[in-house]
Design brief:
Elements lengths: L2 E3 L8 E3 L18 H32 L12 E4 L6 E5 L15 E3 L24 E4 L11 H9 L4 E4 L3 E4 L4 H22 L10 H10 L3 H22 L6
Parallel strand pairs: 6-7
Antiparallel strand pairs: 1-2, 3-4, 4-5, 7-8
Helix pairs in contact: 3-5
Amino acid sequence: MSVLTRLCRGAGLLKWSSPLITRGEPRGVGSTSTAQQADEDILRNAQKQNQQTRIDLATSYRAMEYYNLHMGVCNHLTALCPAANGEGTVMLLVPHGTHWSQVTASCLLGLNEKGALKDCTLRMIHQDSMRFYDNVAYDTEYDGFATTGEEGPRIASKLGDKIALILGNHGVLTVGQTVAVAFDHMYYMERVAMYQMLAMQTGGELQEIQPQVAARWSLMQEGLPFILPYAETHLRGFKNLYAKKSPEVLQ
């Protein structure tokens, strides 16, 4: 299988060969490699190839813009590569409306064969990220400003039983059993997104926390008894601050 890069302008078609990641043959007798180690190697290789493809594709966008081989924001280049999380492949393409002179490796979207956003998701690169392990939903069906109540049920169905929903082309939604919990989730969601963006800007390979570690932490903090005391203390700190600084807030 190869990476296919298509220039949607007339009959222009570019093909760049780049093998997708495959599981290697078992190592020789005496090897200490385990199934877990093999999976970790595959994940690292997938992340490395994903990042390299992003760099190559972003550079191609810039070079095509340099040669004036673009039509405003109406055409695009795409590339197939391993998903950064090691689960299948994704098609990388530029977000709609982005001028080719502004394309970066980190801004490219990764979609699966069903058109669902896969590669621009929250990555487990910081201990705070683990709060959201398998607990974030994504909405890629932005349809303009909501002026009726129809948007509510649709968003609720997207959110499901998760604590956060990333709304494509819009923003972030967090929920909680109390105001303090929802507030605390939002604070940490913004923080981990910032960490991820800063890390991606280095252009280096991200060192992700192993899924079993993230899952263990997620199970440990699952439920209100673990989160609530910290969330309430977090919000109470601001109540105390504003009681002195801006008492009208509490009136």
